[in-house]
């Protein structure tokens, strides 16, 4: 019809027959596939006869797609081409699921990939050949357009993931069986060996405090990409900045709002020039920081180890705020500490995820503090007094967006852990499995704390007239403390600050003196090893992502119903279709109790494919129900991930 018909033409006859109904037109076209039809149209009152070839709609309807690097692609369909008035051929390969390496900014579908690694990809076959030659972990330039805006050519640099998503699979529609048959196309090309590169940091010559702003040489940009949504974390990509604490060993401290767990790919960018891979060394369960490591032999740049203060910063003290704004640009301002207060980041009710608790947070008197998610508070001589970090909070009930807090964290609290990591050890901390809140002297008196203890608090800590009350005890672990207890001492030390509790890190049991229901008592309080709190095994079954209840769940729930927690689910999967939702606990399979992942995998392996089975499920709010689900290994095979180190 191209160049033969125009918009506004009125169809009068087909093959000499007057037509007034679409059904008759459909019959004529369906019976003429591969042949020709003669049309009589009126254009501006003039009769015009044209002869058209009749094409096959099936030939321009995609019957195959390829999945690679976590995304899916097929040729542009006639339906989409007609809807957006674009040519069916030559406009690029259509990305029907923009995820994994191809998670472009904005919408998840509607993208037409034009080139990959500077090679054109006009159709699916060409795209497949191009992707076959792209090595794993390589960074390539991708250009693409969106169907809603074919005028704009977008350009991005993409990190190709062929290790979490190893298989490059072609799916072909089988009209006889009704299934899509899968075929592996090519094994991943091994990653190229990285080579050392040179770079220099920017100079901030106009700053008033040259030694303070020289801390820019201690900052590196951290990019984390998560292949699976674990621990309730809402994002699959995060970018921020980390502080280099040992340039010789490549150690960096970064917020856990950037690196939430260790099942992720971490890229470290030095001086906005050199990109190297990183890996997680340590994750603190309470204080919102992780320590990662990169290979310093690949970096020929004047990276500087940050000089960390050993004495805590004080309220009212003048300092210099150095941070990175939303444009990832460094900004600096002279300021003062307005407050240092013990806080707990608000919990996300709908989806529990990692949050910092029992934390002394620092706030400063500059508007830059709210604009910057990463940075430091630094003295004029360049000594870092506090980290400025992003803390992931609750999800807003009104906007549905995740709230982030920007607060300072004094570096003296980091030093014991940093020293052990620098010496080559891996800290195996123990913690009190509880969340506390501060109570003032007036409240303590009402709750039964004696006058002698109140006088001791005022005498020993003139700056902080406060004690700590147990707000919540984690579920799933034995604890001698209960909600409402006021902690007086631990191992004989008066507890008026969060740092006073640091003794818990190395003691399996603490001797505590508390006030409970206006009665003073002594008891032994066990601590919990942090190795039990991080996710180290994941099972993907029927599209449901399952693991042990992570720390945030135990912080918020009163009883852990089982060790099988639904963290997320894949769209279109049986778990999604049959209503198995995140925050559910699976307790039994076909009436057989499954208290842990081991028993769950054993029982589900007994279920034949394409058969129905029952799951006994408990919601987060203690509501039991039964899910009837049909197993589908063809499209959603069972996969297990186990941490190997």
UniProtKB/TrEMBL annotation:
Q: Where is the signal peptide?
A: none
Q: Does the keyword Amino-acid biosynthesis apply?
A: no
Q: Which SUPFAM superfamilies match?
A: PDZ domain-like, Trypsin-like serine proteases
Which spans of this chain does the record mark as coiled coil? Answer: none
Q: Where is the PDZ-like domain?
A: 59-137, 533-610
GO-annotated biological processes: apoptotic process
Q: Give the source's domain of life in one word.
A: Eukaryota
Iron among keywords: no
Question: Which keywords appear in this protein's UniProt record, sorted alphabetically?
Answer: Apoptosis, Repeat
Enumerate the PANTHER family for this protein.
PRO-APOPTOTIC SERINE PROTEASE NMA111
Q: What is this protein called?
A: PDZ-like domain-containing protein
Q: Please tell me the species this chain comes from.
A: Hortaea werneckii (Black yeast)
